[in-house]
């Protein structure tokens, strides 16, 4: 596990618990506002498309994941996810950096 003084980062595992966290995050219209106009992601989409993408590991990154679940260190609350993944799964030459955070995590630097 990795992290900072205020949060921990862990790989997504693809479990039902991870699916519930991602579904709650992607069901918040304000979180999704600039992604898809505020529409919630369906449970089926989270299960079949989103979670496998979040749990994927990349050979070009030495088998490491490209997405990391973030939790508040103080109480373990889910904060969202961070992404550092290759745009081309076969090469780490170009990486994409991204994140999606719960509203509770907004404005805390």
Structure notes:
By secondary structure, the chain is α+β, with helices and mostly antiparallel strands. It is built from three helices and seven strands, in the order ββαααβββββ. It has helices at residues 16-26, 29-36, 43-55, and strands spanning 2-3, 7-11, 57-58, 64-65, 67-72, 78-88, 91-101. The strands form two sheets. Strands 1-2-5-6-7 form a five-stranded antiparallel beta sheet, covered by helices on one side. A two-stranded antiparallel ribbon has the order 3-4. Strand 3 and strand 4 form a beta hairpin. Helix 1 (16-26) crosses helix 3 (43-55). The model has no long low-confidence stretch (mean pLDDT 96).
Query: On the 0-100 scale, what is the average pLDDT?
Result: 96
Strand order of the largest sheet: 1-2-5-6-7
Q: Name the shape in a single word.
A: globular
> In total, how many beta strands?
7
Q: Beta-strand level of the residues, as a percent range?
A: 35-45%
Distance from N terminus to C terminus (CA atoms, Å) equals: 21 Å
Taking all Cα atoms into account, the compactness measure Rg is 14 Å
Largest sheet: 5 strands, antiparallel
Task: Give the % helix.
Answer: 25-40%
List the helices and strands in order.
Answer: EEHHHEEEEE
Number of helices: 3
**What structural category characterises the helix and strand content?**
alpha+beta
- Poorly predicted segments: none
